[in-house]
Amino acid sequence: MEAQTYSRITTKSLQQMKSNGEKIAMLTAYDYTFAGLVDASGIDIILVGDSASNVMAGHETTLPITLDQMIYHASSVVRGASRALVVVDLPFGTYQSDSKQALRSAIRIMKESGAHAVKVEGGKQSKDSIERIIQAGIPVMGHLGLTPQSIYKFGSYTVRAKEDNEADQLLNETVMLEKIGCFGIVLEKIPATLAEKASKSVKIPIVGIGAGRNVDGQVLVLHDMLGMIKEFSPRFLRRYLDLDKIICQAISKYSEDVKSKDFPNEKEQY
Questions:
Q1: Average pLDDT of each block of 10 consecutive residues along the chain (270 residues)?
Q2: Is the peptide bond before 139 cis (omega within 30 degrees of 0)?
Q3: What does the CA dihedral 226, 228, 232, 235 come to, rounded to 10 degrees?
Q4: Nearby residues of 156 by Cβ (< 8 Å), 6 or more positions away
Q5: CATH label, 11-239, candidates 3.40.50.620, 3.40.50.300, 3.90.230.10, 3.20.20.60
Q6: What residues does 10 pair with on adjacent strands?
Q7: Which residues are designated catalytic?
C-alpha cells in the first residue's frame, strides 16, 4: 500500500498510518532552525523532549529542565514546523503531585507554545493526570518502559520489563492508556517481542526507541542520530552522520583562515 500524503500531521493522521501499516518517523528538535530542517525532511512527529536538559543544557539527567524552559524550546520548534505534529514533554515535577497541577502545566504548554500535544511518562501512577488533561481537550501521548524521569528510582538505564511481572504490567498499562484516551504511546528500551505484543494489543500507534522494529514507528534524539554527541552510544542508536567531525573541521578551518588573514578576502568585503 502506498503511503498517503499529509499536508499536516494530526493525531487522526497517525491513527490512519497505523491502520494502513505505514511506519511513523519521529525525531526530537529543540530550536527553530533544526525544527525547520526536520520538518522539511518529512518527519511525522517532532518531539520537544525533556532530553533538551541533556543535549542543550548539559545536565546529567532530564530532571532539571523547567516548564518555562520547555515552553521556550517548544515555541521555537512550532515556529519552524509547518507539517509535523509537535509533541512536548511535560517535565519532571509538573504533573506528579496532582492532576490539577498537571492540567495547568499542559494548558501553559499549549497556550504559550502553540504545540499540538503533550507527552506524559508513566502508567497507572500518571492515570489521573492524563485523564484530566485529555478531558480538557488536550491530546496526550503516553510513555512506558524506561521512563528517564524515574532514573533515580530505577538506578540505571538498563532494559526494562524483562521479567514477567513487569512485562505484564506494561501490557496492562498500554491497554489502560489507550482506554483513557491517549492517541499514542512511546515504548522505551524494552524487549522487542514485548513491544510487538504491546503494539498488537491496541489500535493507537506505538512508537519505539530501543523497542525493536515491530512497532508502528521509531523515535531518536536528533543530536544522537546526527553524531553530534558521542558519549551516548546505546545499541538501539544508529548514527546517520558524524556531524561532530564535520562541524569541528569547519570551525577549525574558519579559525585558521582568520589567523592567516585569508578570511575575509577582497570578494568578501565592502
A1: 77 97 98 98 98 96 97 98 98 96 98 98 97 98 95 83 96 98 98 98 98 98 94 92 97 98 97
A2: no
A3: 20
A4: none
A5: 3.20.20.60
A6: none
A7: 188
